[in-house]
Amino acid sequence: MTRVAAIGVGSMGRNHARIYNELPDAELIAVADENLATAQTIGGQFGVNAYADFRQLLDKERPEAVSIAVPTALHYEVAMAALESGAHVLIEKPIAATLEQGSALIEAAHRLNRVLTVGHVVRFNPAIQALKQKLVAGDLGRIFQIFCRRAGPFPARIRDVGVVVDLAPHDVDIMRFLAGADPVRLYAETEQRIHTEHEDLLFALLRFPEGIVGALEINWLTPTKLREVLVLGERGMFRVDDLTQDLYFYENAQAASLTWPALQTLVGVSEGSMTRFAIQRYEPLKLELQAFLKAVRGEAPVAVTGEDGLAALRLALALVESGETQRQIIF
């Protein structure tokens, strides 16, 4: 059983604590939050010690693994202290506030032989996992386009970053995951409409190798949550509803009866049948924490590496730069 702690137990971190308390192979031993009342509430709920100072938790409790869900500006300080205390670390995305800080965390984890994983929880959505398996199996043929939409109301709890750094790492990570590659260039348009300090709207185009075009729509201005991934290719289009964990396939009838060699000369597209796949629904965060613990015990490779988290941050910061400068970014 792995002794774990949760540092930062606000809206997201309290779910880490809850799930650790539920998992049979984890022992939640302590929580920390700069708001002591919050820490005491969550600690009391699960019968564990509560701290306002995360360093006291690390020093007194000596957890084997920690989840870190503090504001982005504090990611580096908290994660580095946790690694140096001997703990394996899962840090909520983005990996850090800057690329330099992210790189330093990765170097420290390698030097100290600690697991460092980044909380790109959307990867663990069962529908996204099923979609990845179908793409790897070649069910779509060549991929033409990947489109991600992540929109909803402004979360008042977010103050230190804009919508791009807060949400875009999810979607650029999913694009990298599904395409199996990094983009070679991108261009973004951003706007600041309601959020008074940072951008709250993004629309971006990303170009991937093999002729794959990515499109990304993110905002904090939509009065209902929208979470959607579309992957268009030779045989049709896959659609994932991230909120309901549904996976659909819209068939290109022109390709339905053709063999693979014939697809090389496919000349048309027409509407075919629609399939809704049976997906076993599961809480993505629970799958993520289970994967983290397996990596800690050496039972599986790290599912989302520090390098993955750094790549997602690099792309998010490039999107911000492109929006501010109105220039294309080439990698």
Description:
- By secondary structure, the protein is α/β, with parallel strands linked by helices.
- It is 37% helix and 29% strand.
- The protein has helices spanning 13-22, 36-46, 54-61, 75-84, 99-112, 126-136, 163-179, 253-256, 260-263, 284-296, 306-325; strands at residues 2-7, 26-32, 49-51, 65-68, 88-92, 116-119, 143-153, 185-191, 201-207, 213-219, 221-233, 236-241, 246-252, 271-277, 329-330.
- The strands form 2 sheets. Strands 14-13-12-11-7-10-9-8-15 form a 9-stranded mixed sheet. Strands 3-2-1-4-5-6 form a 6-stranded parallel sheet, sandwiched between helices.
- Strand 11 and strand 12 form a beta hairpin.
- The model has no long low-confidence stretch (mean pLDDT 94).
What descriptive keywords fit this protein?
Rossmann fold; globular; alpha/beta; 15 strands; 2 domains; six-stranded parallel sheet; nine-stranded mixed sheet; about 325 residues; Dihydrodipicolinate Reductase, domain 2; about 30% strand
Tally of extended strands?
A: 15
Helix content: 25-40%
Reading off the top of the CATH hierarchy, the class of the largest domain is best stated as Alpha Beta
Instruction: Give the strand order, joined by hyphens, for the main sheet.
Output: 14-13-12-11-7-10-9-8-15
Question: Radius of gyration over alpha carbons?
Answer: 21 Å
Strand content: 25-35%
Shape: globular
- What's the total helix number? 11
Span of the ends, CA to CA: 43 Å
Structural class: alpha/beta
Low-confidence stretches: none
Average pLDDT, all residues: 94
Name of the CATH superfamily of the largest domain = Dihydrodipicolinate Reductase, domain 2
CATH topology of the largest domain: Dihydrodipicolinate Reductase, domain 2
Going by CATH, the architecture of the largest domain would be 2-Layer Sandwich
* Largest sheet composition: 9 strands, mixed
